[in-house]
Write a structure and sequence with these properties.
The structure holds 2 protein chains of 2 kinds. Chain A is an all-alpha fold. Chain A is built from 13 helices and no strands. Chain A has a single domain, classed as ABC transporter involved in vitamin B12 uptake, BtuC. Chain B is of the alpha/beta class. Chain B has a single domain, classed as P-loop containing nucleotide triphosphate hydrolases (Rossmann fold, 3-Layer(aba) Sandwich). Chain B is built from 9 helices and 10 strands. Chain B is globular and about 50 Å long. Classes of the chains: A mainly alpha, B alpha/beta. At the A-B interface, helix 8, helix 9 and helix 12 of A face helix 2 of B.
Chain lengths: ~270, ~250
């Protein structure tokens, strides 16, 4: 088992996987608790539009995907806040527009689009040190915002109570949306556009089942996100399976174990 | 010296072309118990949200203890929201909800003194045994007590309650009024309560603000809830026998 770690591409994959596991599962607790699980899918598909534009412009796709996804995240938050359109509808509309734009951009490229498939399904074993550096930077920014956990948690529980305590709820909504959007873009190489939403939702949902406090849910979600990345990577290496999909399937397995055992334990306690 | 706890002058709230509140003018003295009464959609919750600084008035002035609402420290106000609107699926213990009353944010951790203060508030409302119980396992009445503990733990000078009796049984409701009156006795706080229960408004409040977008009446309960005013407020459902029955129950 140890010899696997000595392989340079596995070292990069492990570090990348752990960082993405941390980021997605940390932001996932707010996404799940606010009933915004669909946001992950919406932003991942927005990122597809950005990636496709990057490929069309023949530049690093993620540099285009970051501002593209950020704009979509801000657009969704704005429409949700300022109009009578519900959050899920706003996400659905932006999701469809981004996908449609992505398809048009790929069509306009008029070349073989193998790169697009790499981004759709992820390729953790192709993670570079630059990718790790960018993801570590986002993890560091998340660390800088760690004091916001108390405000985000309060708003996730009850928006009006938080507002009555004069918390900057609207500003926090925009910051959280932007950080979720950036997390999605930097995670694409590890799990792919198709599966990143699951990475955001499953560890947090699993932690929710067995937690009685939001703090415990956050800690458990992060531990599950990082552990599943390590274990999933190992399993995929030995069974020669796609790494992103293996990680998600492992997370799903843990979810169902928690569902059938954790809920029972909580009911008895 | 200004003895008014709350001063509202020419308050208007508009949502697009729709008026939610029209020209509200009230002065509420410190240490009074005011019930806000009106039909559904009368703007009662909107009025409370303006006082809490959640909704910006379109026009008018609102001052609490002589200060603009936005400048008032949240520590001066204890807010008890409608229990039925709270997310009970949120993973939290009752004590954590009380701690938000002290910390003004969700607690990651808390020191012994802060926790003792929260336990004391729960004890005041007879809910100390609920401290470590998840919110999902509290009954409506129990959650109401915990919310009350959350609001009084910061020793506010103004307590605002949004339909506090909704979803709790008669005994729980009587307990809640006793707790509120007890808190008011020793703290001399002002209490503002939205209610659909005219009986409770007549028996517990010193004054009633009757709303239906406009201010229909404001004064002692017997005066503010007379037949003419009630017909103005509830005109669309004001069948003679219904109003007479409800007014007799007030007597």
């Amino acid at each position: 088992m140890i010899e696997v770690i000595e392989l340079p591409f596995m070292q990069r994959a492990l570090i990348g996987g752990v960082l993405v596991g941390f980021l997605a599962s940390y932001y996932g607790v707010f996404v799940v608790q606010r009933g915004l699980s669909f946001l992950g899918s919406g932003l991942a598909h927005a990122a597809f539009g950005g990636i496709a534009l990057g490929l069309l412009l023949e530049t690093e796709p993620r540099w285009v995907a970051v501002p593209f996804t950020l704009m979509v995240a801000l657009g969704i938050t704005w429409v949700k806040e300022k109009t009578a359109v519900g959050g899920d509808t706003a996400i659905g509309i932006f999701f469809a527009i981004s996908m449609a734009l992505g398809i048009v951009f790929l069509f306009l490229r008029r070349e073989y689009t193998a790169d697009a498939f790499t981004y759709l399904f992820g390729s953790i074993l192709a993670v570079t040190w630059t990718d790790i550096g960018i993801t570590a930077l986002i993890a560091a920014i998340t660390g800088l915002f760690s004091s916001s956990w108390k405000r985000w948690a309060y708003t996730s529980f009850d928006r009006e109570l938080a507002q009555s305590d004069h918390l900057p709820v609207r500003r926090d909504d925009y910051i959280l949306s932007m950080l979720v959007a950036i997390t999605i873009v930097v995670s694409i190489k590890v799990v792919g556009i198709v599966l990143i939403a699951a990475f955001l939702v499953i560890p947090a949902a699993t932690a929710r089942i067995v937690s009685t406090t939001f703090r415990r849910m956050t800690i458990l979600s992060v531990v599950l996100g990082m552990l599943s990345a390590i274990m999933g990577l190992w399993i995929s290496y030995y069974l020669d399976l796609p790494s992103g999909a293996t990680i998600i399937l492992l997370q799903a397995l843990l979810f169902f174990v928690a569902l059938f055992t954790g809920a029972t334990l909580l009911q008895k306690s | 010296m200004n003895t008014n706890c709350l001063e509202v002058e020419g308050l208007w709230v508009k949502y697009g072309f729709h008026n939610a509140l029209e020209d509200i003018n009230v002065r509420i003295k410190q240490d009074s118990f005011v019930a806000i009464v009106g039909p559904n959609g009368a703007g009662k919750s909107t009025f409370l949200k303006v006082l809490l600084g959640i909704i910006q008035p379109t026009r008018g002035q609102v001052r609490i203890n002589g200060q603009n609402v936005k400048k008032v420290s949240p520590s001066l106000i204890g807010y008890v929201p409608q229990v039925k609107t709270m997310d009970r699926s949120f993973p939290a213990l009752a004590i954590e909800l009380v701690l938000t009353g002290i910390k003004h944010s969700w607690p990651w951790s808390s020191d012994t003194n802060t926790r003792e203060k929260a336990y004391k508030a729960l004890e005041q409302v007879g809910a100390e045994h609920l401290a470590n119980r998840p919110l999902a396992r509290l009954s409506g009445g129990e959650l109401q007590r915990v919310c009350l503990a959350r609001s009084i733990v910061r020793e506010p000078k103004l307590v605002m309650l949004d339909e506090p009796a909704t979803g709790i049984d008669t005994v729980g409701e009587a307990d809640m009024y006793n707790l509120l009156e007890e808190y008011q006795r020793y703290s001399r706080a002002t209490i503002l309560m939205i209610t659909h229960d005219w009986h409770a408004a007549t028996h517990h409040a010193d004054a009633v603000l009757l709303l239906n977008k406009k201010q229909i009446s404001f004064g002692p309960p017997k005066e503010a809830l007379n037949e003419d005013y009630l017909r103005q407020a509830f005109g669309h459902i004001g069948h003679t026998h219904t109003l007479k029955f409800l007014m007799n129950s007030n007597d």
